[in-house]
């Protein structure tokens, strides 16, 4: 090995090959830090704009600030074992400052430096909040009863289904599909939706849950970029008889377990036997099991049970359903059909 291979040609210090470590370090920028970073957040919902796209982000402000600063740091490929300390301080409502201490080794030499980074918090209303604040909508879902008003429970359950569909859309990344509002009317509820996609999803879910039928009525409202814009009104008619209803047919009481709008699937309240029949005017609804009352059992002999009427507190005898083994001191649930009490649960 000759002397030229062991001496740094610049400073004369020993070198394994070419320039020694300090001279090579002098030639490079071992770390680069952007002095200013910026991001745009929606002041209403906190979503973040990346490029031209809005994304929902769940990061705390300080964690996001650290991420922005780190994204603005680049190390030379020869830097090893780098480490950094970052502290963030707010200096105004839309400005923060990051203080950095960065260290590592490069060509076997310890390196360290300090930096300051200005963080700019831009504010802009996102695409979703713009639509919400502008009362934008693409459809209305009218939920009504067939020849009747919706019950409070039906209105509440239909609204819950709509919110669940919105949650599913948002979790799937569809930011522009949401429920704008749910308004009550004397006959039912109106669900205002931002897109036809989520509207159809809600209509399908509500119709499936209640065994209802639906119709749609699109209306041309204009054009945008050569495309026709439509708004759709959906009408969902909940059937006269729904799941959980207790009905009277030819002197017998049945609990409805399902319906397709024309055919009722039921079970006999005394024998528990299943039966299906068409829904017509001969079928009378006396109530729903959600509205049942609890009555205390005073005795149980054979197919008769004695109860105390929860309203009058008078003793009564009523037929016991097959499979009911409730004894004195227990309780059953009942529905009233005039003066008649019917056991619907035990």
Q: What value does the average pLDDT take?
A: 90
Task: Count all strands and give the number.
Answer: 23
Q: Can you list the strand order of the major beta sheet? A: 4-3-2-8-7-6
Percentage beta strand:
over 45%
Low-confidence stretches: none
Radius of gyration: 36 Å
The helix content, as a percent range, equals 10-25%
Number of domains: 3
Broad shape? elongated
Overall SS class = alpha+beta
Distance between the termini: 99 Å
Sheet with the most strands, sense and barrel status: 6 strands, mixed
Number of helices: 5
H and E string: HEEEEHEEEEHEHEEHEEEEEEEEEEEE
Brief account:
By secondary structure, the chain is an alpha+beta fold.
Task: Record the SSE blueprint.
Blueprint: H1 21-27, E1 31-33, E2 36-41, E3 48-50, E4 53-55, H2 61-71, E5 73-75, E6 79-92, E7 95-106, E8 109-123, H3 127-133, E9 139-145, H4 152-171, E10 179-184, E11 188-193, H5 196-210, E12 213-224, E13 227-238, E14 245-249, E15 252-259, E16 263-268, E17 274-278, E18 284-288, E19 293-301, E20 304-308, E21 315-319, E22 331-337, E23 340-345
Parallel strand pairs: 2-8, 9-13
Antiparallel strand pairs: 1-5, 2-3, 3-4, 6-7, 7-8, 9-11, 10-11, 12-13, 14-15, 14-18, 15-16, 16-17, 19-20, 19-22, 20-21, 22-23
Helix pairs in contact: 4-5
